[in-house]
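SAMPLE LOG
Freezer: B-3
Tube label: C17
Construct: single chain, 110 aa
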Amino acid sequence: MEQWEYKIIEFSTEVYSLGAKNEGADSDVGITEAVRFRKIKQEAAEGFFGKKIKRTASTLTTDEIETIFNDLGEQGWKLCETVPLITNTAHAFRHGTRTTAVQFIFKRKK
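STRUCTURE (predicted):
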């Protein structure tokens, strides 16, 4: 029986302005947002109430995503599934999608 190991990489997403004025939340006129991936870095930090996990996000470029995926391929990982994570927040991303993150699931034989 084949034994597999899995790796899950999650990229959160953000909406950002392209610079022009938006005419309204429900308007198709003046749509100026686009979606991009972010990586989330977690690190231990001292807070007011003791230790906590600090999460910071930074934007991923297409080149950085390609590098991540190419490195995984060289290590024998194969993409087997993508899972969009959704939220119940209205207009998380405009016009029908509410995706706020995407998980890429990779597998390889042990």
